[in-house]
Specification:
Distance between the termini: 51 Å
Low-confidence stretches: none
Number of domains: 1
Largest sheet: 7 strands, parallel
Structural class: alpha/beta
Number of strands: 9
Helix content: 40-55%
Strand content: 15-25%
CATH topology: Rossmann fold
Bound molecules: NADP nicotinamide-adenine-dinucleotide phosphate
Shape: globular
Number of helices: 8
Length: 239
């Protein structure tokens, strides 16, 4: 029987590119996002069995219900990828933008990750993948909530990985940390070492196959990660 995967945030960018890669690998797919017409368009474009579900992850109670229903409809799920996320450059510290980021990237992430983990625990195995960011490693003056939300995502995944380990569960948790990827989210930003979404998706798929704990996308962003970790505050503050 084909493997089944659900991608949260599959209407554009990295999530959409991952849907294309997984369809090519013979997966049955569950795809979600807020934009229903895009979900329908993607479903028609893929040569795979595709289930779609419109959901706004910032609405936690509705997301919990809809995600559980999608799992019931599809049957046992092997892989859940959480790509849904937003980021705002917020130099004026508009609290509503910061809070919206937290609702989507933190609360939305937690509800999906928890339901997926419990589903995997019940069925005895599974793989959870969260798209965090290189931004998880340090604070950001331009987008404080975004980098803090990604630190939460990476740390939360470590917690779930330890929970699986301590209970001796066959559950893999992969923390994906992209650098810059060319997607609607990054339009108009000044960037370097930018990867096309398709290349990022192929490298994420390779990390999934290898059951990696943590991966930088593209691979050379490991170097930036290392620099970010060792850089003293007085240098980091001048960048
Ligand atoms: N691009 C980069 O350089 C980069 C770097 C590091 C990390 N990332 C992370 O990669 C992930 C994917 O981003 P991307 O670059 O592919 O951006 P994108 O093209 O804007 O895709 C974001 C996806 O998230 C979904 N989404 C956003 N808010 C949602 C909500 N409230 N409820 C449900 N779905 C929601 C969007 O779908 P709808 O709008 O249809 O809801 C869309 O499918 C994000 O978590 C982002 O933080 C990106």
């Amino acid at each position: 029987m084909s493997k089944s995967a659900i991608i949260i945030g599959a209407t554009s960018g990295i999530g959409k590119a991952l849907a294309e890669v997984l369809a090519g690998q013979g997966y049955r797919l569950g795809l979600t996002g807020r934009r229903l017409p895009l979900l329908q368009e993607i479903k028609e474009s893929l040569a795979a069995e595709v289930f779609i579900e419109q959901m706004d992850v910032a609405d936690v109670p509705e997301t919990e219900e809809k995600f559980k229903t999608l799992i019931e409809k599809m049957g046992p799920i092997d892989l859940v990828i959480i790509s849904a996320g937003i980021g705002h450059l917020n130099s004026k510290l508009d609290p509503s933008l910061e809070i919206k980021t937290i609702e989507t990237n933190v609360s939305g992430f937690v509800v999906i990750a928890d339901v997926a983990f419990m589903h995997f625990q019940t069925q005895g195995k599974g793989h959870l993948v969260g798209i965090s960011s290189i931004a998880a490693l340090r604070g950001s003056a331009l987008a404080p909530a975004y980098s803090a939300s990604k630190a939460f995502v990476s740390n939360y995944m470590e917690g779930l990985r330890l929970k699986a380990l301590k209970a001796n569960l066959d559950i893999t948790v992969t923390d994906v940390r992209p650098g810059f990827v060319d997607t609607p989210m990054t339009q108009g930003q000044s960037m370097f070492w930018v990867a096309p979404a398709e290349k990022a998706a192929v490298q994420i798929w390779q990390a999934i196959k290898a059951k990696k704990v943590c991966v930088y996308i593209t691979r050379r962003w490991r170097l930036i990660a290392w620099l970010m970790r060792i850089m003293p505050n007085w240098i980091y503050g001048k960048i």
